[in-house]
Design the sequence.
């Protein structure tokens, strides 16, 4: 009897969490497949390279239905190695508080299979190690299933993105030119001042 009461209490607890919109990642089935173009360990450059993603329903799973899937999102997510000592990237089982996947690269009505979606890496993306994850949502805009390019521990099929540092070769050249011009101007003014003082004497 106690075990039945305990089970009912747990079910009610998780239902109340869902009703409040607090969906737990650990409660989601991994019902989607996700394949991304970067190879493991590959380094991509922000604003220059593209990522191609194919994702959809994993039809190899038995009793798989997608009638409640209404919307799909694909996100770029931080790998654990790029979350160390960075609270603003911290993983939380509560999806409302989770900061693992901060960059949405696809947000459209659900299709059973999406092939070859291409996304140009945005220029303001920070340098880090990433993986790709997809979520599907119901009518209430709650995540109800997911898929990702890495394993559950998020240790394989990871790739790096090199962000723009804010300094370019052209900027460095310009700064050197201005420095040289300023130095020559200073020397020139010095000689002119010296010559004028000799003329006056």
Sequence:
């Amino acid at each position: 009897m106690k075990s039945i009461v305990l089970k009912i209490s747990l079910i009610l607890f998780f239902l109340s969490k869902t009703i409040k919109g607090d969906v737990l990642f650990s409660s989601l089935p991994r019902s989607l497949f996700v394949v991304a173009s970067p190879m493991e360990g590959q380094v991509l450059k922000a604003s220059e390279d593209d990522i191609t993603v194919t994702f959809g329903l994993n039809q190899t799973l038995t009793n798989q239905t997608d009638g409640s899937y209404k919307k799909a999102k694909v996100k770029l997510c931080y790998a654990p190695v790029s979350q160390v000592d960075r609270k603003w990237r911290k993983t939380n089982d509560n999806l409302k508080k989770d900061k693992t996947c901060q960059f949405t690269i696809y947000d459209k009505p659900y299709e059973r299979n999406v092939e070859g979606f291409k996304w140009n890496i945005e220029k303001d993306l920070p340098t880090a190690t990433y993986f790709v994850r997809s979520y599907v949502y119901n009518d209430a805009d709650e995540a109800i299933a997911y898929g990702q390019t890495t394993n559950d521990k998020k240790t394989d099929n990871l790739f790096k993105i090199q962000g723009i540092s804010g300094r370019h070769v052209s900027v460095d050249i310009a700064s050197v030119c201005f420095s040289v011009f300023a130095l020559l101007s200073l020397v020139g003014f010095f000689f002119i001042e010296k010559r004028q003082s000799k003329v006056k004497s």
